[in-house]
Amino acid sequence: MRTFTAVVERDPETGLLVGYIPGWPGAHSQATTLDELQINLREVVGMLLEDGEPDLESEFVGTATVEVA
């Protein structure tokens, strides 16, 4: 079983959750709930893996808090 890290954001215009895997073009989806988004992303990644191993353009490292005075 493979594991990928997805970033999840909420689109302010539609209210939908948008998920994507950083550095992997095409590895993105949207949904109304986190559970639905997880299913959608799993399906997209599965289809992309059918074409072979991803050539990731970047690697997810983490998040950072930026403090501005």
Question: If you had to describe this structure to a student in words, what would you say it looks like?
Answer:
The chain has one helix spanning 34-49; strands spanning 7-10, 17-20, 28-31. It has a single domain, classed as 2-Layer Sandwich (Double Stranded RNA Binding Domain). The model has no long low-confidence stretch (mean pLDDT 95). The N and C termini lie far apart (45 Å). The protein is α+β, with helices and mostly antiparallel strands. A three-stranded antiparallel sheet has the order 1-2-3, covered by helices on one side. The protein contains one helix and three strands; from the N terminus they run βββα.
Descriptors:
69 residues; 1 helix; alpha+beta; Double Stranded RNA Binding Domain; 3 strands; three-stranded antiparallel sheet
Sum this structure up briefly.
By secondary structure, the chain is an alpha+beta fold.
- Kindly name the structural category: alpha+beta
**Helix-strand string:** EEEH
Overall structural domain count? 1
CATH architecture: 2-Layer Sandwich
- Report the principal-axis shape: globular
Can you summarize the main beta sheet?
Answer: 3 strands, antiparallel
Which percent band covers the strand fraction?
Answer: 15-25%
What is the helix fraction of residues, given as a range?
10-25%
**Which value, in Å, is the CA radius of gyration?**
14 Å
